[in-house]
Write a structure and sequence with these properties.
The protein has 138 residues and is of the alpha+beta class. 56% of the residues lie in helices and 13% in strands. The structure holds zinc ion (ZN).
Length: 138
């Protein structure tokens, strides 16, 4: 039986792959959610708006995670001011507000994933990856 940390890690790998495929422009490029620069996919990270260290419950939230260049993600610590502006343009104010409410809740209460939930996420994102690859003709 797989440990919870192991399942979380597996879910993160498939979720990140889903984000990379979802946010690719064609098969080779992407536009960074923060700086807006178009770069090669090898420079793309799956960048969280609400940091998973403080908001574990938003780790696999599609509205909280977007293709971001490694420069913004790693050296500018998420480049969050630009991230927020572009995130609102991308998902709309309503979804952004919902994300903010969830973040507040998880910050106050924490979040514990169950094995059932993690296994389900792994299955769902594996399926979504297959679908996206078909669409992208990969
Ligand atoms: Zn960037």
């Amino acid at each position: 039986m797989k440990t919870l940390p192991r399942l979380k890690q597996e879910a993160q790998v498939v979720f990140n792959e889903f984000i990379r495929l979802r946010d690719s422009v064609g098969a080779s490029h992407f536009k960074c959610i923060s700086c807006g620069q178009v770069k090669a996919v090898k420079f793309m990270d799956a960048g969280h708006f609400y940091n998973v260290g403080y908001y574990d419950g938003l780790r696999y939230d599609e509205d909280n995670c977007h293709g971001q260049c490694s420069h913004c993600n790693r050296f500018l610590h998420g480049n969050l001011i630009e991230y927020q502006a572009n995130l609102i343009s991308k998902i709309g104010l309503q979804r952004f507000d919902r994300l903010k409410i969830k973040a507040g809740h998880y910050k106050r209460n924490g979040y514990k994933f169950t094995r059932f939930e993690l296994n389900l996420l792994i299955t769902i994102y594996k399926e979504k990856i297959v679908e996206l690859k078909k669409q992208l003709d990969l």
